Amino acid sequence: MRLTRAEYKEIVRWTEHMRPTRQCMKMLKERFPNHSQSTLLSIFSLEYQKRTKRTISRHHAPDAIESYYQRYLSAAKAHPAAPVLLEMAIEVDLSPALMARLILDRFLQGLEGEMPSKTTLNSMLKEPSLIPDHILANNIYQCTINDCCYGPLVDCIKHAIGQEHEVLLRDKLRERNLSFLDENQLRAMGYDKTPDIMLEVPIAVEGLIVHWVESKASFGDDHSHRTYLNEQFWSYCNRFGPGLVIYWYGFIGELDCQRDRGILLKDRFPTDIVTLQPASQKDQTPQ
């Protein structure tokens, strides 16, 4: 889905005061019924991550962590069955999963008398039943399952969605009988920075030659697209020639402005593909 910058900014304005819970996504979908839930979630997640980067330092201050921990202990003692950690995270505008990490880290420091290892911390966040305090374990679990932007559950979902769309891309290429090398094959050949797909025979899309295809299971906003350009896309162009980027959950339409420099943006696999003959053949006319 291509959004104009004005449409994108309207959605962003509605996300400014939202918290990263499952309930907020229902509200966002009700406000923008013509946009897919996946697109709205991707936009909200990107915006909330920007907000978190601006404010995370104050939540990580030692005084703030101790204050949160003492508040948690008091509230959990008074209401042991309530999701007090989730409610506190929403109140102070911190991701529930990040709040859970802070509190668990502080709990383990008091229990062990030293900083817990990242392995221990991550294991308990992924599997709260490992936490020796069952009330805290329940609170950690509530934070994890209700956070739509951060945490081990979100990380697993994002990884699975990314893999799913890479498989979808390969299936689409095979349906068109297009020969290609994937990222793993390219790395085995010694390439360090590689696109998801390198076409062995280039194609033409909307009159533009495409040598490689990159799959992004996210929305393409200004910040993320600029980052991808600098860290990935320009190097692909320099090494392999012009290519196609698919933002499966849409992008700001005005960002599709680099076609003359070799980068075409789409929000789905193109249907208007022209297969070109291999360069070794004399006749270079499209089939």
Topology, please?
Layout: E1 2-3, H1 5-15, H2 22-31, H3 37-59, H4 62-78, H5 84-92, H6 96-112, H7 118-126, H8 134-146, H9 152-175, E2 180-182, H10 183-188, E3 197-205, E4 208-216, H11 222-240, E5 243-247, E6 251-252, E7 263-266, E8 273-275
Helix pairs in contact: 1-3, 4-6, 5-8, 6-8
Low-confidence runs (pLDDT<50, min 5 residues)?
281-287
Rg calculated over all Cα atoms: 23 Å
What is the straight-line distance between the termini? 30 Å
Helix count, DSSP H or I runs of 4 or more residues: 11
Characteristic terms for this protein:
287 residues, alpha/beta, 6-stranded mixed beta sheet, two-stranded parallel sheet, 11 helices
Summed up:
The chain is an alpha/beta fold and 287 residues long. It is built from eleven helices and eight strands. Strand 4 (208-216), helix 11 (222-240) and strand 5 form a beta-alpha-beta unit.
